[in-house]
Design goal:
The protein is an alpha/beta fold. The chain has helices spanning 57-67, 88-102, 131-151, 169-190, 207-216, 229-235, 240-247, 276-285, 303-319; strands at residues 44-48, 71-75, 105-109, 156-158, 194-196, 223-228, 251-256, 258-260, 263-267, 291-294, 324-325, 331-332. Helix 3 runs parallel beside helix 4 (169-190). The radius of gyration is 19 Å and the shape is globular.
């Protein structure tokens, strides 16, 4: 990992069509995006481009830099660095230069809903019954590793997919492990972590499932974890803060939003049940140095407003995450002193809420 706030160096020549041209490194304050009043200094907040799909990518990156974010969760999709369109290497170099100029770091995310199949959400997956479908998803993930390498990104995110109807569980795990081998090989050559996300409703849904995958693959060095804090609230037996501590040795990427127990619905901060200061304290205590990315994929209609309000919320939550003495001399960790983030109503044609992002 690089030092807080520092753009990672290029990881060698491009796998796409030539060497990357380096832009000057940013001289931005390494604690940008964080309060200076005792909050954990190495926590770096980002915002996911899947929550800014109504903006051009250049405009979205400029917005996040202006607001004070440290980085971006960049979802490869048809509107943002399309991984299937021509001239990907040239477009990637352009984005890399833009990130450098703005002082933003990145994690590459691969959760675009219809990037491969315009009629099947997240299809084909790594569990698809059709070997050609699985191979198509593998090619996308290998390409994502290449893009992330050229961006100097921290990690590449992915998930398993939903087990197809009628598929035995052992068969599904076998498909997943076989499909991930070439992706892990690409990640190993790039020395770039592949951060698998437990996703409610998927084959790999929990932290326990992630550890099962690790053991099936003989614990490869570059296999890491994307931890979604809302998912922890939704279905893990431990609290989100305890999940952070349990996941720390494998943690390579963090997504964050509010959520309620048993309901997989990504909510703006203050609209769910999560107590965030203990979560941020746990991230700081474990030494996590990647990005903590706001994940609101169903709120693009209010993306600019929510990006601003979310960073303000996280800054205040981080400021009170440091244990503070109470009147009796014991330590307490107060909740963030704020009400819920204000969410403008969606347009009438917006996607229905709930379900997987």
């Amino acid at each position: 990992m690089t030092a807080p706030g520092e753009r990672p160096p290029a990881r060698g020549a491009s796998h796409l069509d030539g060497p990357r041209t380096e832009a000057p490194a940013s001289q931005e304050d390494p604690t940008a995006g964080l309060p200076a009043d005792g909050a954990p200094a190495h926590l770096r907040f980002g915002y996911g481009t899947n929550g800014l799909t109504d903006l051009r990518l250049d405009d979205a990156l400029g917005l996040l830099a202006d607001l004070g974010y440290s980085g971006v969760g960049l979802t490869l999709d048809h509107m943002h660095l399309d991984p299937l369109a021509p001239d990907l290497a040239a477009r990637t170099r352009k984005v890399a230069r833009r990130l450098d100029r703005l002082g933003l770091t990145a994690t590459v995310e691969t959760g675009a809903r219809y990037v491969l199949d315009p009629r099947r959400k997240h299809g084909p997956s790594l569990l698809d019954p059709d070997p050609q479908g699985r191979a198509e998803r593998v090619r996308l993930l290998v390409r994502a590793v290449q893009v992330a390498t050229d961006l100097g990104a921290h990690a590449v995110h992915c998930f398993s997919g939903i087990t197809p109807d009628g598929t035995p569980v052992n068969t599904a795990w076998s498909r997943l492990t076989d499909a991930l081998l070439p992706v892990l090989d690409a990640a190993s050559k790039a020395r770039l972590p592949l951060a698998v996300e437990p996703e409610p409703g998927h084959l790999l849904a929990t932290l326990a499932d992630f550890h099962h995958l690790r053991h099936l693959l003989d614990d490869p060095e570059l296999l890491g974890l994307t931890l979604d804090i809302g998912h922890c609230q939704c279905l893990e037996p431990q609290s989100p803060a305890d999940c952070v501590r349990a996941a720390a040795p494998w943690l390579r990427h963090v997504q964050i939003e509010d959520m309620r127990r048993g309901i997989h619905e990504h909510l703006p901060f203050g609209h769910g049940e999560i107590d965030f200061p203990p979560v941020l304290r746990a991230l700081a205590d474990t030494g996590y140095q990647g990005l903590t990315v706001v994940e609101l994929p169903r709120h693009s209609h209010a993306g600019p407003q929510l990006a601003a309000q979310s960073l303000d919320f996280l800054r205040r939550a981080a400021a009170v995450a440091r244990p503070q003495p109470d009147t009796c001399g014991t330590l307490t960790s107060p909740r963030a002193p704020s009400g819920p983030v204000t969410v403008p109503p969606p347009p009438r044609e917006a996607s229905p809420r709930g379900g997987t992002p």
